[in-house]
Amino acid sequence: MMGKTTRAKLAAFAAMSLILISCGGNGGETTTTAAPPDTTAPAEPSGDPIKIGILADLTGPFTTYGTSLARSAELAVAEINAAGGIMGRSVELIVEDIATDVAVTTDKARKLVESDKVDVVIGPIGSDAADAVFKTVTQDGKTIMIYPETYEGGKCDSLFFSTGAVPAQQIRPMLPLLQKEYGPKVLLFGADYVWPRRSFEIAKPIIKEIGGELVGEVYLPLIADDFTELVKAVRTGKPDYIFTLYPAIWGAALKALTDAGVMEGVGVGTTFLGDPDLAGIGALAAGTYTALPFFTSAEGVGVAAFMDAFKAKFGADQIPSGGEALGAYNAIYLYKLAVEAAGSTDATAVANAMVGLKFESPTGTVTMEASHHLRQTIQLVRVNAEGLYEHVSSFKDQDPEESCSL
Amino acid sequence: MFTLSNSLVKVISAAWKRAVEIPQSERRRVTEIVLGVLLFSLPFVLSDLFLIDRFGRYFVWAIFAISVDLMWGYGGMLTFGHAAFFGSGGYLVAIFTTRGGSFLPLPLWPAVGLALFVIAVFSFLLATLAFRGRLPLRGVEFAVITLAVAFLLEQYARAGGDLTGGQNGILFEVRLGMFGLDLHRGRGFYALAGISLLIVYVVARVFVASRQGLITRGIRGNEDRVELLGYNVPNVKVGLFVMVAVFAGYAGVLFYVHDGIVSPTAVGATASTQVLLWVALGGRGTLAGPVVGAIVLQHLTATLSGTLLDTWLLVIGVLLIVVVLVFPGGILGHLNRGPAR
Fold this sequence. Notes:
The structure holds 2 protein chains of 2 kinds. Helix content of chain A is 40%, strand content 22%. Chain A is of the alpha/beta class. Chain A has 2 domains: 48-165 and 299-376, Rossmann fold; 167-270, Rossmann fold (3-Layer(aba) Sandwich). In chain A, strands 7, 8, 9, 10, 11, 12, 13, 14 and 15 form a 9-stranded mixed sheet that branches. Chain A starts with a helix and ends in an 8-residue tail after the last strand. Chain B has a domain at 53-264. In chain B, 76% of the residues lie in helices and 2% in strands. Chain B is built from 15 helices and 4 strands. In chain B, strand 2 and strand 3 form a beta hairpin. In chain B, helix 5 crosses helix 11, helix 9 (186-209) packs across helix 10 (211-228) and helix 10 (211-228) packs across helix 11. The interface between A and B is large, with 55 and 48 residues.
């Protein structure tokens, strides 16, 4: 039994740590990346900082992707600050964890817009979260939103931009290749939310058009613990290949399929599986094709430098993931160029300046189209026998073919 | 820094010692007054409208926590599925205000009334089945049933097609307001949530002090004895269940209309267990404790997930363990009883 004074002290200590921690919440929420000392560096940025808010899933099922998004943003901001900021103003990055949860995302988006008054919001990962917040961010006409993740396309707003890949850039060029290699019978397998469902709606007419045959369509919860339905569908449908959009735990699904012995000779194509996702499942995934804007094995003059900078900042064993890492990096540089072209951070002026902008991204030139979606090069890779991605080809300078007209 | 924390410890210890002197009969009243003053002075202290709005959100969660405390803390009936009612409040209002149909869509408050009526009927049927059947459910059996209900509703919300919007849920743009006042954001929302919390709290207090409340606590202590004394235990339980379901539903209405989106996790098991943490941390069977638990834990979550980024879950987990070890009866349970008798 604890004595009276011990309890009092413990209580005091507990109360104090709570106070200290929550006080930290007021001042410490911002990570300003100071410019490293460099003799050749341009003038130190000054004045009111330009604020960039990041909505990243740093916990929950999308941790891998969210972490990559936040880190790439951090890297881009550090580079920009070291080179003199944007129009002489420093850039302040405010990162919020949205925990792969829509309700949290709504709250955090409002915090960034209403409390921090950021100039631009970059994120989130999930399409459902993006659907939930993009109006929240853009409705007052003061804040731009750039969505850096691969998604199903179709979002259209004067202050909304996408730097991720959309179906016309990945699914359209990829399905004929998969069919040529494996055969015409395809099974679609996705997580049960808006991105896989809408993407598959786009994939179906393409499959028909190229003479393929849809033998099944399965949706499971984002974090499923039972893959019986999927195994059954593969066993009865006998697909030549599976086209899957099952982020977060595709490894578990693949293991279940392999254990059930139904994967013999069956190909796999995805548009989400980045290099970090391969850890632990590489051997199982041998032969898998993936199309995304970035891989460590991507083609492009800037790839090595981007990777080196990422590793120097976050650790030699840390690698950026496929879509969101480059998406966030491009988003911040495009925003910088747009502010400089507009000569102000006024959201409408920046949005107008954004259209038609070109940026030399690590994998090649990207262009912001009038549809507010990004023309960019998509990398097609394949998992080799060692469980690592090998570059197959690049879909060069892909038109997003989005119909948004503003 | 060290001297600062040392003096802080001294100040808190002194305050603590002073607090120890307060006689036990007065303790609850004192904590309630201090808490009330603290919470309702916030809009005058804070200048950040968003933060004020966020506290409104915490108040709504506090109503949810009170609802669970009445059930679990006072009635001794652990529920693992209380978000079924919280989330249903959000879903029903979203459906009634956005979907077309014979009498739909409805304006906000008629939709709220209808939603709470549906929840009352549903909870009445559920409670009648659970408590008045041939084999009335108790303890773990009841907890499992509540969990199953939440799980079923979550699955239905996911698979409900156009009605529930599937995994994406329902986005709706109804604004909270009353008598021409806009209560959707900032101080307005804070006031709406705060007054709602106050009313629910007072009703809960009155209930706890009433004859029904006494029987409820008796059920927690020894259900068989209460029954043998001639009280109609199933009736009391059904009544309690309907009341807490409506409270939780009303909290859900405020929360999701304010957020403008409701998605399947709203009715699920995770949301249901989270509220148990608030109640346990604050002190179950104290009413004020769950309010404190909800506000403190949610505020820590909201701020730490912006500062500690990927380690905040760990910090909050450790904190919870420490608090529960030091105060097994929860923070308010400890304060009300007085330390180390």
